[in-house]
Write a structure and sequence with these properties.
- The protein has 126 residues and is α+β, with helices and mostly antiparallel strands.
- It has four helices and five strands, in the order H-E-E-E-E-H-E-H-H.
- Helices cover 29% and strands 22% of the residues.
- It has a five-stranded mixed β-sheet, covered by helices on one side.
Length: 126
Amino acid sequence: MDFEPFDRLIETIRAAYPTCYVDDRRRTLLHDPSLIVAVAVGPHNPNAKQFHFVTACVSIIAPFYVVHGAPRGGRLGAFLDELVRQTFEVRSLPPELGHERIPDIAVGNVEMGETTIGDALFSPDR
């Protein structure tokens, strides 16, 4: 996998939000179907007691992504949403599709019949 676009994404976030802690959580092992970017809004100190995390997950299986933890209408969430879309040329996974169950697939500790499309695209476990 080419990590150059991911590296540019991290650099762009850090340049735009220099006072935020940006955690590069690259998870692309064989058992993990997504890239993760976690942005902690708060002092640039990973030991600070109060953070608001905004996380973007980009599937390496299908051209979809999700952004979690962003307040509706929040500037950081909108920025991250647009940046991920442009960097990876992916689409936002509609929530109703992400919650759709897949009957014949188990992911991590999620049993067959309970696994959702979101589970299959973004996480080894729920």
